[in-house]
C-alpha cells in the first residue's frame, strides 16, 4: 500500500530528468525531505458556528486556508501543505460533514450561508483577520461565495476547477453542461445515492478518481483507501450528498453577480469531465484582478494530478501579490 510519504512521490519533475537523476534516487531524496516535513503536520480541531471542524496544519506566518471538494477531505491538499508551509501557516480543513469534522443530521445544515460562517469562524478562531483562501470543487464554490460576502477578510483567492457562480449558472442552461452535471440530479434522490456510493466497497468513490483522472498514477491504492475510509465514517455520505440536495435553493446559482475586488487566480485542468472549459471563459468580467492558468492533459483533480505545476502557478501568483512574504 505504501506510506503517506511514498504516495507523494509519483511524479518526476522535469528538472530531475534534466539533471539525469534516476527515479529511485529522486524517490529516496523526497522520502527524506517529506519525512521531516510530514512529522510537523498537526491534526487539530476548532469549534465554530456550532460545529467542531477538524484540520491539518503546518508552518507559521500568514494564514493560507484550503477547502477541499467532493468526495474528498483535507488529504486532497497533501502535495500543497508542505510546499506552502515554508511561508504560511497552512490550514487544510475538513468541511462540515466530511471525515473527522462534525456531521449535523439536518439537511438544512448544509447551505451556503452556514459554510460561509464556518470559514469566517475558522479564520477568526485561529487569530487572523485575513487569509489567502484556496478552494477546489465544492471548496471552490464556498471560496467564491465567501469572497463576495467577506472580501475584507481575503488577501488573495485561488480557485481550482470550479467556475465563477455566474458562469456555472449560465452553463446549467446549456445541454452540454446539463449532461456533464447529470449526477447532481441523481443526488437529489433520498437514500438511493448513498446505496450506490457505498456498494461494492465504495467502488463509486474509487471510480470518481481513477475513472476521470488523466494522470492515472496520481492515485495509489492507499490514496483511494483513504478517500473510501473517510466516506465510510458514520453519517458522512449523507452529509456530503446534502451539499447537492440544497444546491438549487442556494444563491450560488443566481446568475446576477457583481465585480469581485479580491485578486484571484484560477487554475483549470482542461480535461475535467464534470465541468467544461468553456465555463471559465469571460470570468474576468466578474473579477477586477483576475489570472487564469490552464493545465492540459489534466482532469478535475488538478492539484493531485499535476501538483508541481499547481504549486508553481500558486507561487508565481502569490509572489506578485504578497511582496511582504517573498
Automatic annotation (TrEMBL):
<feature type="domain" description="AB hydrolase-1">
    <location>
        <begin position="62"/>
        <end position="305"/>
    </location>
</feature>
<keyword id="KW-0378">Hydrolase</keyword>
<dbReference type="GO" id="GO:0016787">
    <property type="term" value="F:hydrolase activity"/>
</dbReference>
<dbReference type="InterPro" id="IPR000073">
    <property type="entry name" value="AB_hydrolase_1"/>
</dbReference>
<dbReference type="Pfam" id="PF00561">
    <property type="entry name" value="Abhydrolase_1"/>
</dbReference>
<dbReference type="InterPro" id="IPR029058">
    <property type="entry name" value="AB_hydrolase_fold"/>
</dbReference>
<protein>
    <submittedName>
        <fullName>Alpha/beta hydrolase</fullName>
    </submittedName>
</protein>
<dbReference type="InterPro" id="IPR000639">
    <property type="entry name" value="Epox_hydrolase-like"/>
</dbReference>
Amino acid at each position: 500500500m505504501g506510506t503517506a510519504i511514498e504516495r507523494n512521490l509519483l511524479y518526476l519533475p522535469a528538472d530531475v530528468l534534466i539533471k539525469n537523476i534516476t527515479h529511485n534516487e529522486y524517490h529516496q531524496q523526497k522520502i527524506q525531505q517529506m519525512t521531516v516535513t510530514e512529522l510537523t503536520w498537526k491534526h487539530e480541531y476548532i469549534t465554530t458556528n456550532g460545529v467542531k471542524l477538524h484540520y491539518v496544519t503546518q508552518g507559521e506566518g500568514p494564514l493560507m486556508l484550503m477547502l477541499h471538494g467532493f468526495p474528498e477531505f483535507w488529504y486532497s491538499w497533501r502535495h500543497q501543505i508542505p510546499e506552502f508551509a515554508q511561508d504560511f501557516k497552512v490550514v487544510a480543513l475538513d468541511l462540515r460533514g466530511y471525515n473527522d469534522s462534525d456531521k449535523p443530521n439536518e439537511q438544512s445544515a448544509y447551505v451556503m450561508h452556514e459554510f460561509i460562517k464556518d470559514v469566517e469562524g475558522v479564520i477568526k478562531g485561529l487569530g487572523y483577520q485575513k487569509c489567502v483562501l484556496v478552494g477546489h470543487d465544492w471548496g471552490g464554490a464556498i471560496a467564491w461565495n465567501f469572497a463576495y460576502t467577506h472580501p475584507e477578510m481575503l488577501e488573495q483567492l485561488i480557485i481550482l476547477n470550479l467556475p465563477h457562480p455566474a458562469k456555472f449558472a449560465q452553463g446549467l442552461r446549456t445541454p452540454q453542461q446539463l449532461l456533464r452535471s447529470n449526477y447532481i440530479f441523481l443526488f437529489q434522490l433520498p437514500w438511493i445515492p448513498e446505496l450506490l456510493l457505498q456498494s461494492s466497497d465504495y467502488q463509486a468513490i474509487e471510480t470518481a478518481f481513477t475513472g476521470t483522472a488523466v494522470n492515472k498514477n496520481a492515485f495509489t491504492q492507499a490514496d483511494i483507501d483513504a478517500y473510501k475510509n473517510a466516506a465510510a465514517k458514520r453519517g458522512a455520505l449523507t452529509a456530503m450528498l446534502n451539499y447537492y440536495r440544497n444546491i438549487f435553493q442556494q444563491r450560488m446559482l443566481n446568475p446576477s453577480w457583481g465585480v469581485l475586488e479580491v485578486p484571484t487566480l484560477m487554475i483549470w485542468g482542461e480535461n475535467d469531465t464534470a465541468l467544461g472549459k468553456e465555463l471559465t471563459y469571460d470570468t474576468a468580467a466578474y473579477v477586477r484582478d483576475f489570472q487564469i492558468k490552464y493545465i492540459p492533459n489534466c482532469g478535475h483533480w488538478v492539484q493531485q494530478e499535476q501538483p508541481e505545476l499547481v504549486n508553481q502557478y500558486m507561487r508565481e501568483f502569490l509572489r506578485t501579490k504578497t511582496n511582504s512574504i517573498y
